[in-house]
Amino acid sequence: MTYLNYFIYDTSSCKCFIDKNVYSKTYTIPEEARRRLVWEERVTSIVHHNLRADAGLHSFRRGLNKYSDLTHDEYMQNLNGFKARKSFLERNATTWIPLSNVDIPEQVDWRHDGLVTPVKDQQSCGSCWAFSTTGSLEGQHKKKTGTLVSLSEQNLIDCNTENNGCHGGVMDAAFEFIKSENGIDTEESYPYEGALDSCTFKSSSVGATCTGHVDIPTGDEEALKHAVATVGPVSVAIDAHHESFHDYKVGVYDEAECGNGISDLTHAVLVVGYGTEEGKDYWLVKNSWGESFGVNGYIKMSRNKNNQCGIATMASYPLV
User: Fold this and answer.
1) Does this entry carry the keyword Repressor (predicted)?
2) Is 287 a catalytic residue?
């Protein structure tokens, strides 16, 4: 927390805006004052939380990131974009059948096996559903072909009309769209813009294909563990509307106020592993808010705590 403490002791001077310079942020004069107030209120909340963490009252610490000048409503509008629709739930999904006679390890991290691309940044666009979709397909494609290819979220934002671009979507619909289009373009050929644009999908630039998807039994963390261990990275949706999630920094995230119903789910992420830290079980989750979030873009979320934050409520992965 050296980074945070530097700001705490000098918030009366311009040094409190070092994060603005680090993240290349510029404001108009009226906007500058408003953003500073938002930022200082967040610093106060972080300090209070971390003092309680020091006293053993929390299992995780909070800290600043590139989005620390956003209000709660802006977080929800710009960075949360999972939109579950009853019309699509379980439609076209293949039934989950766990592998038998396999040993499930106590710890998994698919980054070590090369199934995970570097952390990406959705920017001010509610396209988390697209990043979760590409993340799990990137893993399955690597597992099948031996080649890790970064896939295009922009392809999904522009072309997958059943989802709603920067205004939200669901991964299962994206998997079925990729199946219907016979593939998704590479990130290199169809780079990210962070805004809706016209569809320019090119079949000659396809980086991976998909033959369908599997829905993991809702709310079943053991099934999710089995899938992560035997299949690879899995797309999930979570309740991420709490301030404690927005500025999570390190440790095992444990938010008692998290909901786990379908209506509670606001954000799509990628489970790339699991394990136990200081006696606390966790899911290793890749976010799409850049590397300044959490631990280089990752968060450890509570596991085996009654499906906290709904991490196993709508879990799925693509077939290739």
Assistant:
1) no
2) yes
Q: Which residues of the chain have pLDDT under 50?
A: 1-18
58 is catalytic: no
The predicted-structure confidence for 84-116, as pLDDT tens digits, reads as follows 876 666 567 888 999 888 999 999 999 999 999
Q: Which of 49, 58, 246, 267 is catalytic?
A: 267
- Of 125, 128, 159, 309, the catalytic one is 128
Burial class (CB in 10 A: 0-12, 13-18, 19+), 273: buried
Q: Is 128 a catalytic residue?
A: yes
